[in-house]
Amino acid sequence: MAEQHLRRPAVEAATGLSRSSLYAMMDTGDFPRPVRIGKRAVAWPESAVTAWLASRPVANREGK
Known about the structure:
Elements: E1 5-6, H1 8-15, H2 19-28, E2 35-36, E3 42-45, H3 46-55
Antiparallel strand pairs: 1-3, 2-3
Organism: Harenicola maris
Protein name: AlpA family transcriptional regulator
InterPro entries: AlpA, DNA-bd_dom_put_sf, Prophage_regulatory_activator
C-alpha cells in the first residue's frame, strides 16, 4: 500500500504550527522536509509527520 502524503494545510492542522513556523523549523532541522510530488508541488510523508509528533514532549495536564 502506498504511503499517504500530506499537503501543507493538512500538516498545519495536524501539528498546530503555522506556515512560517513549519519552514523556520525545517531550516533549523527541527521538522522533516517535504518531498516533491510534482513539478511545483511538495507534501510530507504522513509517517514523517506522525514520527515527529510522537517525538514531541507531552504536556503534563496536572501542572506538575
